[in-house]
Amino acid sequence: MKQLWRRPKGGPRPLFTYVVRRTLQAIPLLILISLILFVILHNAPGGGLGPYLQNPHITAADIARLKHNLGYDKPIVVQYFLWLGHVITGDFGYSTSNSEPVFNAIVERLPATLELMISSFVLAFIIGVSAGLFAAVRPYSIWDYFITTFAFFGQSMPVFWFALMMQLAFAVHGIPLPGGYMIQLPSAGISSSDTFAFGDRATHLILPAIVLALLQVALYSRFMRSSMLEVIKTDYMRTAWAKGLNFRTVLFKHGLKNALIPLVTVTALTLPGLFGGAIVTETIFAWPGEGRLFFNALGQQDIALMMGYLVFNAFLVVFFNLFADVAYAWLDPRVKYD
Fold first, then answer.
1. 188: CB partners within 8 A, 6+ apart
2. Rounded to whole angstroms, how far apart are CA atoms 79 and 113?
3. Can you name the residues that pair with 94 across neighbouring β-strands?
4. pLDDT tens across 241-265, in order?
5. What CATH number belongs to 110-331?
6. Which residues of the chain have pLDDT under 50?
């Protein structure tokens, strides 16, 4: 049988063309987001001069001189395009709260946040998908009701309260073991010393990773349960079982891949959200990452650092949305790139 359509030899690949097109569409979106953030932050009380206005000895002449030197006496649109021109060259400004360039401040703390994010995501994905799958194959059983109740509990639990309760239970009171032994997990920090031993760093990671993963576990389990229940009822699943195939083979080989399709969008949207959730978690557990950096910048009105953090988060949202669209083609052969 002859192929009815064939991509011209040497022509652009559909996936590559799609990625390039979406990337070009994302550029004006990021510019618009950064403009809105810039206007909001610079119109906040104090604006960019907030850190300097906290000095009780500052005079009106000092304020006028600072406005001129920092460019705050220019129209807001001119200020934005001057900032955008510096950003294009990799200069995100100077952090007044950390006394260093914004780019350096973000890069220095990025590894700690990635360590926390990856750990919590892996934990949440494994537990959430497994729980949702288990609930789907035993619908309306006591285990299904238990997992559903836990999901509602996780979605409604305030992160700051749960973090404090975890510190109280496992760091203050400790975990009793047979023989009168007691295990107490670290309540704050990333390490007990400057050596950063693996075991010590892993124990410091346990509590913040569990707290950050709680909401994601609840979300993934609910979506996985609903998606797998729909897949189980499809004709090709019933046909596979009618042929006498093993239950696990049908479930994992034929059903799981299709059931994961809705979870791709949820995962892509929640991964950048982990940065937002990490603000509370990292602050409570004194984790030296991006979230704690932003919280300190917010308290000290560090406009340049807040702009760098928020623009970086906006970039992550756009990137992971593109990643979700590309992943659809691998999970669902019916998806084509036009």
1. 285, 286, 287
2. 31
3. 101
4. 777 777 777 777 777 777 877 787 7
5. 1.10.3720.10
6. 1-8, 10-12
